[in-house]
Amino acid sequence: MFLQQFFSRNISPPITDADDNDNNDDRSSSLHSQDNPISSNNNHHHHSKQFLIINRLNSYCLLSEERRLQRKINQKIEHELRKEKRMARRNLKLLLLGTGESGKSTFIRQMRIIHEHGYETVAERMEYVSKIHQNLLTTILTINHAMQLLNIGYEDPEIDNDLKKSLASTYNYNYVETWRQWLNNANRNFTTKDDDDDDHDDQTIHRLQSLRSYQLIIQMVQNRLPSNLYSLFDRFWNDLGVRQCVQKRNEYDLLDSSTYYMERLNEILDDSYVPSVQDILHVRISTNGINEYNFEIDSVNFMLVDVGGQRTERRKWIHCFESVTTIIYIVALSEFDQIFCEPIVAAGFGGDWSHRYSNDNHQDGINNWQKPVNKLAESKALFKTIITSRWFRDTSIVLFLNKFDLFEEKMLNGPNRLEDFFPDYKHFKQTKLSNNVVEMAVDFILQMFFKQNPEQFRRHVVYTHFTCATDTDNIKIVFQAVKDTIMEQLLSKEIQIF
Ligand SMILES: Nc1nc2c(ncn2[C@@H]2O[C@H](COP(=O)(O)OP(=O)(O)OP(=O)(O)O)[C@@H](O)[C@H]2O)c(=O)[nH]1
Ligand SMILES: [Mg+2]
């Protein structure tokens, strides 16, 4: 409900200082032509014969000047023709950008649902079972490991052991073998006891956890988890220690889908489980490389480009920067209390904690691989890089403030306060009369992002929407609005078509 309330007011461009003359190539060229010797000479031509003589003397110079002007006009005509042609074909390229886990691919899934009857068949949905089960197992292993690190005990101390035993027996042979191979490849000095398989499994799991490398065991979930894990997983999820650990989820890297799946364990681990569309929208699969999706909507071809948002993926972005009509930049609002945790940070989990909540680290540049940073601050810095990039001088920008549902929940019931991570919020709050905490907080975050759009770049009108990428109705309305804005901009030639 709150989302709808916000939605209705957000389409007006909050930063509209777009200076029409600024950086408008067409207009600046016509301005030039007024100072041009040709135009001024023509002016005088009617008034002075004397000037005509001088004019003839200068004819060589004028001709080349004229040619230059002519060429400019030709170029302009060609540009317009290309534009018209593209308009006629109605091909629009929309680039989805944002940090890892912000919700880009979820948005693409929504497009498939809304415009292509996506995931309607059981067969299509069944393809997601193993991914959902992998998310489930990642959740359990992550919490289990975080409990050690945060020094939180299980209410039922047997759970830890039962978990190790049952996972080891489920993934016994393949898993141990793959693990050994990985260790050999990594040239680690690893000695194993070959005589006792049980010990062997325990030892392997222990090392697996201590290295925070769940990838191997997770890759073992090729198909689905056995349904007999249900009672153990259910015990785990209801354990008071686990609940406490989940409350502190901002101190480690827990999937956003964790709670959603754990609350549906019963269905998800059932042998006859068929994922629902909602289950598919919640699955976390990180994107590698650049993926293009084409949709035809009202006889307009939309090419949506989805990229991987994690740091290691961002170096590939430049390959899709050409001919972009609109950028949709996605921010996860709910990340305000989370730390940025990519491998180098994860490996040194206990590392330099003094920086973990700092939101100034982005000043070191987004290429800083060492210090853990606040996730929202990281996204803000990336937004600035994008909005000030020469690549996107003529690209329209749409900002999605996503994960509104999680954000609202955190603001109303979460253990952390926005001002603990963004101290400026304290002052901001005092200047507001509203009692609505969520409204104030999103206003603050919005202002923070707008400030990334410096004066000289204010030709960019930034359109904003509050979104929940897992909510199909919301995305349907938002995308309709985005589409209308783009079409309006195209017709009024506010934005470039290439
Ligand atoms: N509750 C909730 N979950 C969301 C929302 N948007 C995305 N998610 C979840 O957040 C996780 C990450 O979403 P993705 O779409 O994979 O993020 P991404 O931006 O594509 O990430 P990369 O591919 O790594 O760049 C998934 O589990 C989504 O289901 C939202 O608005 N609300
Ligand atoms: Mg993705």
UniProtKB/TrEMBL annotation:
Gene Ontology terms: cellular component: cytoplasm; heterotrimeric G-protein complex
Biological process, per Gene Ontology: adenylate cyclase-modulating G protein-coupled receptor signaling pathway
Region Disordered, residue ranges: 9-44
Residues that, per the record, bind Mg(2+): 105, 287
Keywords assigned: GTP-binding, Magnesium, Metal-binding, Nucleotide-binding, Transducer
Superkingdom per UniProt: Eukaryota
UniProt xrefs under InterPro entries: Gprotein_alpha_su, GproteinA_insert, P-loop_NTPase
Annotated binding of GTP, by residue: 101-106, 256-257, 281-287, 306-310, 402-405, 469
GO molecular function, one term: G-protein beta/gamma-subunit complex binding
Pfam families: G-alpha
Protein's recorded name: Uncharacterized protein
Organism field: Dermatophagoides farinae (American house dust mite)
